[in-house]
Hints:
Layout (H helix, E strand, L loop, with lengths): L15 H5 L39 H5 L5 H9 L11 H27 L5 H10 L4 H4 L4 H19 L71 H6 L20
Amino acid sequence: MNLPVLSSDCGSCFGLCCVLLSFSRDAGFGVAKASGTACHHLDASDGCGIHATLREDGWPGCTVFECFGAGQQVSQVTYAGVSWRENDNLGEMAAVLSVMRQLHEMLILLSEVERRLPGAAAAVLHRVTALTSDPPEQLLTIDVDELREEVGGLLSIASMRLRSGWEGPDLARADLAGRDLRSSDLRGATLRGATLIAADLRGLDLTRADLLGADLRDADVRGAQLAEALFLTQPQANAVRGDATTELPAVLNRPRHWA
């Protein structure tokens, strides 16, 4: 099975996130802008003029965002290398990007299930992979909510299997913002959808903790063991405060700003 690339390659994209996404200062962007308006830092070759200094220049939101490779898939496969600069189709491209990003995120999560439990997600993984090659008109007819519900059910079953023998506390959707959790045993914990904004997780072992959809913005994970956490994604890793001693899953990139 040939999966599409599931991490962003900005050099192969038309700067879609810089044009099609709305920005707000509260979300860590230097200015507020509406969807469909190009960021003023985007140049004519679809490069970012401050890419190397985004955090220093007050744009941390850009360093947290991850399209999961949807940007280059839409640019180079869905639209065969024909940019929004050449066609008046920004509205359609925005809708397609939204669908594609969700498909790619599902592929990342399904790939993790398949890696940990071979055969458990193979059929759905194959089906979602095939959808990423569909033309725009077909992508826009996908019932994404129904598909997400199906994938979500599979992930729940996988989580229970993977946490068997590691059953930690059930903190799904709990408000743990700002909490000092260093004395907690969170191995095998259910932290799905939990709010962990600015929580202190330093030195914690989060092996087999289910972090699907957890809000980890500014959580302190210095020295934490996240290598075997379940369903941790790149945007979550980008949003936390880590250091050289933080252990991440091998499939994730270590954020540059941790240094």
